[in-house]
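Figure 2 data, in text form.
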Amino acid sequence: PVIYEYWKDLEMDILSDCEQIFKFTENSILPNFNIFTCTDVCSNNLFISNILDTPGEINWLKGNCNYADVIDEFLAENNYEHKNEMAQVFYNISMTNVLTLSEMLEITTAFEAFIENPDDDSVFSDITAETIQLMLEVENWLGVDGEPITGAEAALVAQHPRCALKIFENSLDAKDRTAARFPGMIAYLNCGDAFRHSYFLALNTVSCGAAIAEAFGIAHESNDPPSSGDVMMDLHNNLQGIATAVANPGASSMVFETETCTKLNAGIMYVLSDTSDPLSTAIPSTGCTCAP
């Protein structure tokens, strides 16, 4: 309680457009105690969007306000459907401290250009395949968050950086639609998992063509035993998604979603006989039902 009486002795200095410091006056009880914070102009959107919702994320902000400013501007300047998810990925990448501030600015700028014109390869002049790989490692397409991409995936990213970003963007849509169709379900080895893979591959087929979409799907499974039920299930459902896109040229994502549910409900796709065991048998998806 005594210390709290001295909060009135705090002085604030603006260190930069993004950084400010609160410190106690020389005669206070804590003369050497300083508090560094980011100004609202550089972090307000991050808080509003719930990007900074853990102690670790908030603590990292101190001393890294300029990184926060780059991502805060990304949130403020575009109406991209998945901008919050993308900003979270950018923030997670920043926290790894493997990119310089200028590199982070390059990747956010390139991604904004990609959103505006996803077919323009020139947007990749300032973004490397290694940076895209890092994005995928921070939030893997369909795996556990933080699970690194496979060597086969990394090779494909280097060959097809534009498709890799499109596939990454499609993964956000696939996760959203899976959550809507299977609310509360952890989509792993079950009906939700089957839907997600198939719908995802339909989107990827439109974005990159059937051959590249299938290659990325196979590469994603390359670290797992090829005879496991999990791999057999995923690869089968991937092919069903590709077939959906090929059979419906020019169709909307809503058509793909409906067709995916129809196949799932009809037992055409695969789930595992034991959804707690990735080595169990892949069986038809009979009994699966998409929520309206």
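Caption note: The first helix runs from residue 40 to 48.
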